[in-house]
Amino acid sequence: MSTATGDTRTGARDAATADVPKPPHRPRHTLLYVFLSVMALIWIFPVFWAVLNSFRDYDFTSAHGYVSIGGYTFHNYADAWRQGDFGQHFLNSVIITVPAVVITLLFASCAAFVVARFSFWFNLPMLILFTAANLLPQQAMLVPLYRLYNSVEVPFWLSDSGTLYNSYWAVIITHIAFQTGFCTFVLSNYMKTLPQELTEAAVVDGAGVLRQFWQVILPLCRPPLAALATLEITWIYNDFFWAVAFMSQGDKFPITSSLQNLRGQFFTDYNLLSAGSVLAAIPTIIIFVLLQKQFVSGLTLGANKG
Fold first, then answer.
1. Are 276 and 79 in contact (CB under 8 A)?
2. Of the candidates 293, 288, 287, 290, which has an alpha carbon nearest to the alpha carbon of residue 222?
């Protein structure tokens, strides 16, 4: 009996499938697929070429050219790790990235809570000010920040130079200043979608502003906070510009800025440099694989919320 019923359902499904008209073939779809495939190959070719040559010996490629087969070795990775002092520079990246991301999200959450949950006259100007800061090119702020960090004196236990220049704090503060605006914009849009009745009920129960923020609104913002944390870790970790601009000692450089240590004064082994670049990219690849769900949700955050 059950077999007959299954055959009947299968036959009905096949008949329904056969009745569904197939979409017409459109040449522009084919052209779109071809275009996207070509663009994907163009994008991935430099990555593939760097990874391939990171496994090749420099003497072999200098003798036979890069368009050849052979000379494969793992020595480039060991040499890059040793010559670049990657252990210290990975630690420097952690020292810069972790506090920058945590403080940025904390400041952005506080500012977004005020903008989204209260009706002050300065809410819109403050949000515009935060967002406009992201539109400034980094190069335009280089000279003012360089002079500022050289003139601000700090205790020697905070910076061995006696000023903010050539310290981790200069890079951390700059990242916080540039990234807080974007995070405030995203978080304020998300907080506006939360029902106003939540805070009204908390007020009726006697909750103050700090308790409304910490115990009512902030726990509901875990999805955007996770997405922003993933994006910020990737952006700040990959930054090259600010560390080179505000640090003079190479032993304080983060991992991306330390890659220039693999370049010689008169000679550059590009196979060695490729191996160092692959090593520097491994943490961000691991973070993307582990948190890709939050990364993708961060790219579409606010797309389906009014």
1. no
2. 293
Residues 6+ apart with CB under 8 A from 3: none
pTM score, whole prediction = 0.79
Q: Which residues pair with 72 in a beta bridge?
A: 56
Q: Where are the beta strands (DSSP E) in 137-219?
A: none
Q: Is 72 helix (H, G, I), strand (E, B) or coil?
A: strand
Contacts of residue 72, Cβ cutoff 8 Å, sequence gap at least 6: 55, 56, 57
What residue type is 230 in one-letter code?
Answer: T
Instruction: Give the chain's largest Cα–Cα span.
Output: 88
Residue 302 CB burial class (10 angstroms; 0-12, 13-18, ≥19): middle
**Which amino acid is present at 16?**
A
Q: pLDDT band for position 2 (50/70/90)?
A: very low
238 vs 92, 104, 175, 187, 291, CA distance in Å? Answer: 13, 16, 12, 23, 17
218-262 pLDDT, tens digit per residue, is 998 888 898 888 889 989 998 888 888 888 877 888 988 878 778
Q: Tell which residue, 214, 249, 254, has the closest CA to residue 91.
A: 254
